Structure to design on (190 residues):
């Protein structure tokens, strides 16, 4: 009878992958290095993930789920689109500032061809509510009529600039977060 899988080992492998991917990239990191950093036997990774791509897709889904949980906790479903976007902005900037390695790895995974379409669809699912709110705001004239992927890219670019300023001047974090959102809002509102 096979031993049950250990959540502790699986989580250690994912954490090691985050550390190593953030330092050396996805493709340059061998699975043996991930196993070693996780403190498990070299072949153990393949007990939990069918392949390196399996690990990559699982990590993508873990990070997207964590980000969704952070962004959607306390989400003002009945609020204006400005309140909704402000909530997302504040929580996104806070998560990214607190977890720079996770952010870097998520950015790498978003660009990676090794993340399959099924994982991308599953990872996007929790954010459908946000996209629908933005679409309604475009329809009612509150937001500019721009494609959702472009709106996402504007959000990401401006939050990245905000995070860079926070990293350079942590004492000004609240100011940069507030002003970053104001600039984002002025760019996307009608």
């Amino acid at each position: 009878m096979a031993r049950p899988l250990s959540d502790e080992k699986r989580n250690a492998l994912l954490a090691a992958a985050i550390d190593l991917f953030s330092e050396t990239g996805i493709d340059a990191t061998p699975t043996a290095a991930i196993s070693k950093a996780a403190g498990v036997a070299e072949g153990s990774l393949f007990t939990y993930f069918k392949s390196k791509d399996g690990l990559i897709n699982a990590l993508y889904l873990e990070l997207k789920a964590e980000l969704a949980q952070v962004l959607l906790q306390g989400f003002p479903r009945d609020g204006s689109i400005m309140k909704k976007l402000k909530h997302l902005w504040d929580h996104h900037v806070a998560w990214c500032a607190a977890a720079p390695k996770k952010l870097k790895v998520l950015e790498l995974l978003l660009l990676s061809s090794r993340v399959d379409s099924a994982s991308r669809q599953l990872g996007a699912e929790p954010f459908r509510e946000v996209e629908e709110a933005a679409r309604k705001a475009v329809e009612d004239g509150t937001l500019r009529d721009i494609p959702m992927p472009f709106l996402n890219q504007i959000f990401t670019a401006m939050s990245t600039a905000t995070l860079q300023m926070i990293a350079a001047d942590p004492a000004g974090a609240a100011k940069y977060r507030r002003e970053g959102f104001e600039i984002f809002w002025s760019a996307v509102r009608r």
Observations:
- The two ends are 63 Å apart (CA to CA).
- The CA atoms of residues 67 and 94 lie 11 Å apart.
